[in-house]
Amino acid sequence: MNAHLQPSGSAYFLDSVKPLVETHTLAVIVDNEPGVLARVIGLFSGRGYNIESLTVSETQHEKHVSRITIVTSGTPVVIEQIKNQLGRMVPVHSVADLTVQGNALTRELAMVKVSGTGEKRVEALRLADAFRARVIDAGTQSFIFEITGKTDKVEQFISLMVPLGLVEVARTGVAGITRGAEGMKV
Predict the structure, then answer these.
(1) What is the mean pLDDT of the chain?
(2) Which InterPro entries did the record assign (predicted)?
(3) In 10 A of CB 8, how many CB atoms?
(4) Is the N or C terminus of the chain more exposed, i.e. has fewer CB atoms within 10 Å?
(5) pTM for the full model?
């Protein structure tokens, strides 16, 4: 049957509709004890969810509490499942979807090693200045730059360094926090 003869409400076109995949940044407050991070990661791997970025650190020493920041992607239904499943875990105190809250600041740090001489070296320094990247180590054959900012800024800087002699990249992953006087509940 020709496409122009098929009725517009045909079920044959349902397969071509792709579900909307969104990227979300989740902040999770957990007890700082052995095995908690493994349990959180196990929730993701056991259900086939992807973690695009993961950072974790103790944030309140006296309360033995850590903050895990996870960047993940999925359909809206999958994102809701992830938040609900995280919220039901015993060592989890609270889960916040920084993407939905909409007033969050997110940043990432990267150290970028670039090797080169001559014009490539000059261009790498010029671009670093434009991106506000700092030189944290310099030799006659290479530089190590430190850059902080939103993930897309870091990725753009890294991609511009590829033709200039990119050697190695170390990234922290995303850290995020909401604006305003209120904080996450422990």
Answers:
(1) 91
(2) Acetalactate_synth_ssu, Acetolactate_synth/TF_NikR_C, Acetolactate_synth_ssu_C, ACT-like_dom_sf, ACT_dom, AHAS_ACT, AHAS_small-like_ACT
(3) 5
(4) N
(5) 0.82
